[in-house]
Write a structure and sequence with these properties.
Mean pLDDT: 87
CATH architecture of the largest domain: 3-Layer(aba) Sandwich
Number of domains: 2
Helix content: 40-55%
Number of helices: 7
Structural class: alpha/beta
Number of strands: 7
Strand content: 5-15%
Radius of gyration: 20 Å
Shape: elongated
Length: 202
C-alpha cells in the first residue's frame, strides 16, 4: 500500500499491530484521527500514555487496577469466602455486569496452552495457591470460571489437581456457555445463570 505521507505510514504500522486490526482498518482510524480536532487526538494520546505509565495489577487478584489493591479486593461488601478463577480482566468485567456474583476473583493472566508455550509457570497459579494456603485464609469455595475450550478445560483440571488437597469446595460454572466460547462474549443472562447454577468440579 502506498501512503502519501511517511507519518501516516508509521501511524498505520503501529495501529495495525493491535489484534483484529488490519492495515485498511488502521488507515481509516489514522485518517479519522487527522480529521478530529487536535485537542481530541492529543487527549487520546495522553490517555494512552497515562494508561501505559500508571496502570498496575492488584497484588491480591492480579486484575488491572489503578492502585496496588483493586476496589473489588478492598470492597467491604464482597464475600471473601468465595474465590472465582478467571483467565483475564475482561472476564471479571463480564461477570460483574451480571450482578450475580459478590465474591472475590483471581486472574490467571491466561490459560495453559503448550502450543503457545504457556505453561503453569507463566500463569499466576503459585499466587493462587499462596492465597488459599495462608493460615488466616477464609476461602471456602473456589469457582473455576474458565472458558469451555480445550485450553480452559486443561487449566481447570490442573487447578483442581493442585487445589483438591485444601479444605475448599471446588465448583465450575454450568455449561450455559457454548463449548469453545469465551466468557466475554456470553450474554449477561446466560453468564449470570452459569455462575448461579455452578456445580461441583468432577
Amino acid at each position: 500500500m502506498e501512503y502519501p505521507s511517511k507519518l501516516i505510514e508509521e501511524a498505520v504500522n503501529q495501529v495495525s499491530k493491535l489484534p483484529g486490526i488490519g492495515k485498511k482498518s488502521a488507515l481509516r482510524i489514522v485518517l479519522q484521527l487527522i480529521k478530529e480536532k487536535k485537542e481530541n487526538t492529543f487527549a487520546l494520546t495522553e490517555a494512552l500514555t497515562k494508561l501505559r505509565s500508571n496502570i498496575q495489577y492488584c497484588k491480591h487478584c492480579h486484575v488491572i487496577a489503578d492502585q496496588a489493591e483493586c476496589s473489588i479486593c478492598t470492597g467491604i461488601r464482597r464475600d471473601k469466602s468465595i474465590l472465582c478463577i478467571v483467565e483475564d480482566t475482561k472476564d471479571i468485567m463480564a461477570i460483574e455486569n451480571t450482578g450475580q456474583y459478590t465474591g472475590l476473583y483471581h486472574v490467571l493472566k491466561g490459560v495453559i496452552s503448550p502450543l503457545q508455550g504457556i505453561g503453569p509457570a507463566e500463569l499466576t497459579i503459585d499466587s493462587l495457591i499462596e492465597r488459599v494456603s495462608k493460615p488466616d485464609s477464609i476461602i471456602k469455595e473456589i469457582i473455576l470460571a474458565l472458558s469451555p475450550t480445550m485450553e480452559g478445560d486443561t487449566t481447570s483440571f490442573y487447578l483442581h489437581k493442585k487445589l483438591k488437597e485444601f479444605p475448599v469446595k471446588i465448583t465450575v460454572i454450568s455449561r450455559g456457555i457454548p463449548i469453545g466460547g469465551d466468557l466475554e462474549y456470553a450474554d449477561e443472562i446466560t453468564l449470570g445463570r452459569s455462575i448461579s447454577s455452578r456445580t461441583l468440579f468432577s
